[in-house]
Write a structure and sequence with these properties.
- By secondary structure, this protein is an alpha+beta fold.
- It folds into 2 domains: 215 residues, Jelly Rolls (Sandwich), CATH 2.60.120; 141 residues, Domain of unknown function DUF1214, C-terminal domain (Jelly Rolls, Sandwich).
- It has 4 helices and 17 strands.
- The longest helix is centred in the first third of the chain and has 22 residues.
- The N and C termini lie far apart (71 Å).
Length: 373
């Protein structure tokens, strides 16, 4: 039986298979801190999510004829997803200009960030700018129109650097139930390149090969091409001591981050009979929440468990503060966050457009029986 005819797409497909083999051999290793069977299994789950993401976002991609695609779903998670948010991306070319229009759909915060250096599936080099809903006009019905690149405008516009490659949107909702779990929630977004004429050419051997290579580049950029985490070179808002949160801070131009937010993250570490009691106050801001992640920056199962809280579903103390409990079993108190039985994980705080200082959440390890009793 003869094989397929020689083709550029066939060559690219072979390269993709070789990339998958390299990722299998080199990514989930002790050098990257993967030393347990559980971490290895969850690492392979991450790789499947990354493969689906690569196919959905990069295989067929054209910055001259862009469209919006949802980045994260309840079954496709990466890069620190959020129980209360929807994210979309569209490819752009720094030499072009674009018109974007849509509707906020009741989101308490909407923004567009420009990711630079992420061409052809590559990992973003930096966030090059942000345009949030204080920078563009939103009509009473939630509709808006904004522009990217081209001649400068006083409002509703942001420049595109030469190496601009992606627009990322954030739509945050403070609802009692996780917005990301709502199958009916769809943010209407449209994008067109200004001056575009006619449809793109139909796929051919060369364009299909290029798409396959984008998938491979995407996978490498999210795995083996990422250096192992260096504890001595982490942002100050990333905690190194379990059960202790660092003061929330803005992320700077870190790729896939937002300039107008403050973040704080640390790990929890709990024995089977322990719980973590977290106290603090929600600040004055546009949006705030906390989520539980695994080591691969994926939220826990928010379809079936309470693994995140925002200001709308947090039960406050009489003085306006909150008291949350991170535990393996339901202690029968308000604001329980379900660990899914994981002895360790990450706790991630987001505060968007904060006004004034943000009180750092404080945590104390207690016996679970002290709460349930």
């Amino acid at each position: 039986m003869s094989g397929p005819l020689p083709s550029a797409s066939g060559d690219a497909f072979g390269e993709l298979l070789a990339t998958l083999a390299t990722v299998q051999q080199e990514y989930l290793t002790a050098a990257r801190g993967v030393t347990t069977a559980e971490d290895t299994a969850e690492g392979h789950r991450l790789l499947m999510h990354q493969l689906e993401t690569a196919l959905a976002l990069t295989f067929e991609l054209d910055p001259l004829h862009p469209d919006w695609r949802r980045i994260i779903t309840p079954h496709r998670k990466a890069l620190g997803d959020n129980t209360d948010a929807l994210y979309y991306q569209a490819p752009v070319d720094g030499a072009a200009a674009y018109r974007v229009w849509g509707n906020t759909m009741g989101a308490v915060y909407t923004s567009f960030t420009v990711e630079a250096g992420a061409k052809e599936g590559a990992y973003s080099a930096r966030t090059a700018g942000v345009l949030n809903d204080t920078d563009f006009d939103v009509a009473p019905d939630g509709s808006f129109e904004i522009f990217f690149g081209g001649p400068a405008r006083a409002r509703n516009w942001i420049a595109l650097p030469d190496d601009a490659a992606l627009l990322i949107t954030r739509h945050y909702f403070e609802w009692p139930e996780p917005a990301a779990a709502d199958p009916g929630l769809q943010v209407p977004l449209h994008i067109e390149r200004i001056g575009a004429s006619g449809p793109p050419p139909r796929p051919d051997d060369a364009s299909i090969a290029a798409g396959i290579r984008r998938v491979a580049t995407f996978l490498r950029g999210r795995t083996v091409d990422q250096p192992p985490r260096d504890p001595s070179n982490l942002p100050s808002w990333v905690g190194l001591v379990p059960n202790v949160f660092p003061p929330p801070e803005a992320p700077g131009d870190l790729a896939f981050a937002a300039f107008d937010a403050a973040y704080s993250v640390s790990t929890y570490s709990l024995a089977p009979d322990e719980a973590l009691v977290v106290t603090g106050r929600w600040p004055e801001c546009r949006f705030a929440n906390v989520c539980l992640w695994n080591r691969y920056l994926q939220t826990y199962d928010f379809l079936h468990r309470r693994v995140g809280l925002n200001r709308s579903n947090t039960v406050l103390e009489p003085d306006g503060s909150f008291r949350m409990v991170i535990a393996h079993a339901d202690p029968g108190v308000p604001n329980w966050l379900d660990t899914e039985g994981r002895a360790t994980g990450q706790v991630y705080w987001r505060f968007f457009l904060p006004e004034g200082a943000i009180a750092t959440p404080r945590a104390t390890v207690v016996k679970l029986t002290d709460l349930t009793g």
